Amino acid sequence: MKQLLNLTFKFWLVPLGFFLLFSCSDDDSFSAVRFSSPDLEVVTDTLSPTNITLEVSPASPQASSITIIAPRNAYGSLFTTEPQLAGGEIIVPVSAGATTANFQLILLEEGIGFEDFQQEFEIIAVGPGLVTNEFEGRYFNFNLINDRVQEDDLPFVENFGVCGPNGSFQLPPEGWEVIDVVQNSFGTGGFFCYTGQGAVGVGTNPFTPDGDATSGDDYSEAWLISPPISLGGAEAPSLNFDFDRRFDAPIDDNTLAYGVQISTDYDGTNFETANWEVFQPALEAMTANDPGFDNIENTGALGLEGYAGEDISIAFVYRAADAYFLATSIRVAKVRVE
């Protein structure tokens, strides 16, 4: 839901007598300053800079300026201006002979985001040769109707709260899917909630309840698949997650025991026919983890540039040739795409 960002600029009016005393020209002629219109509504999806115009009538008898201050502003976070605000003031120059003066309002995309924006301006002071009416033309209302559309789902974050202190401990998390392609004879070949090492995530370990080992004939394979994630217009999308593995029991030369695979055409119903690509940067980060001891760590940013503009599904894949304690086990936590 949009929230209206409402900032008020106030410009303090110095009494007219002040200007007559200190802002006169040689022939004591003055030009009146006013906003060219009391309101401006801008409908945009680009947040382009907006020129705000003030009229000077008659033409300014000399070089001068208009001073604007901005108490309670969000300068630098929601907007900047040109000329820039300095010492709490925006000084708008007026050239000799000019009939208009301008300053530029620059909306900051990272601050405004996808929200509307409303701003009131008020003239507070003018320089030599200029005057302003106490009431008319001093006020200006700027109203932005923001038509920008969020084109991606980023950042996408999965902290596996379902496995946390207040969670149900029932997988999968909302929006995710668990597919047990093949389950071993003990029913231990899938994903479960993992809370070791201070982490909250998911894990695998196809141990047998009584410690019995099977020998090459109790295969299991499980996939944990994310909801669709739109990368939209993100310029440099990346994936990172916390990962740990214990033991190292490869399946065979042609079968990965674990990894990440990505699909751009999985729709939730076509698991077997969708195209799933091994995401090599993730596999390399996972195999870099030392299997000899517990050591869950972040993979670092794994570039998704090859999927820029796509809607993707990310699958964490696990396979085990046997059901026994020393089969490779993995732990995954804090999945983030940004």
TrEMBL record:
This is Uncharacterized protein. It comes from the Bacteria.
